[in-house]
Amino acid sequence: MNLSDDSRIWIFQASRKFSYSEKENITQKLNNFIAVWNAHGAELLASFDLPYDQFIVVGVDENQAAASGCSIDKLTKLVREIDAEYSLDLLNRMLVSYEENQHIIIDKLPVFKQKVKEGAMKNVNVFNNGISSLKEFKHSWLVPLEESWAKTLLN
Q: Model pTM greater than 0.90?
């Protein structure tokens, strides 16, 4: 994303990787959306990325114009439409994604918590999908378990 580091971002994780055709279609939908996305008539300087072919990350440089509640609702509506079309579980906040042995794994939150408490998670990097700035995304989106939001679960 070619936006300033203090740009606001939203991260949506899919429950599986996008197929090639899904990725192409999602890219087209996002390009079309961003081309006309605005907040109360003010054009938004926005961009997106599809990291790991499993996440949708949308950013807005709010130095130009801030995303309003209505504009965020429009983004959510688009994500719901993509989710309905491809069954990706994009809005399920009870799923946790992490990387283990260069594979992305998605677990339900209670399963993930149990694995951490049992010590079953070794050399795991956790995705922090709750971050909200591009700078955080670049530097602390994927971090070792011990440095993540889940560190409180460790014994």
A: yes
> What contacts 24+ positions apart, CB below 8 Å, involve 127-130?
127/11, 127/13, 127/55, 127/96, 127/97, 127/98, 127/99, 129/11, 129/12, 129/13, 129/55, 129/97, 130/11
State the pLDDT at residue 122: 84
